[in-house]
Automatic annotation (TrEMBL):
This is Ig-like domain-containing protein. Residues 12-118 form the Ig-like domain. One of its GO terms (cellular component) is T cell receptor complex. It comes from the Eukaryota. Keywords: Adaptive immunity, Immunity, Immunoglobulin domain, Receptor, Signal, T cell receptor. InterPro entries: Ig-like_dom, Ig-like_dom_sf, Ig-like_fold, Ig_V-set, TCR_variable_region. GO terms for biological process: adaptive immune response. The keyword Signal applies. The keyword Transmembrane helix does not apply. It comes from Sinocyclocheilus rhinocerous.
Amino acid sequence: MLMTYFFHSIFPVSSGQERVEQSSREMPESEEAQVILMCNYTTTSTSPNLFWYKQLPNRSPTFILNQYTTEPDFINKYSATLNSTSRTFPLMIKNLRVSDSAVYYCALSEIAFPWLPL
């Protein structure tokens, strides 16, 4: 069975020197496969705060993880490692299921906890 994943940047326009970039495209994948969603970032900060969110249709975005922590409900499903050299924060989704079909957002913030109510 093929699933489609939609993802794009939550901040498509740069704000000064702060910016994240993602490809806006569909990704058909098979169940139980693994997929990596790329996030490239630009910042002047020496310690950027990067985050991943998942948004289901007609729902608010849900925090998945940042470079320091993963929401307990998602710890076995998602992982991401910040690479400050290449300025990337790729999200790995393991063991895909139909329920993983969603819009995935990468976000960059100067605030340490932007997953609080949007």
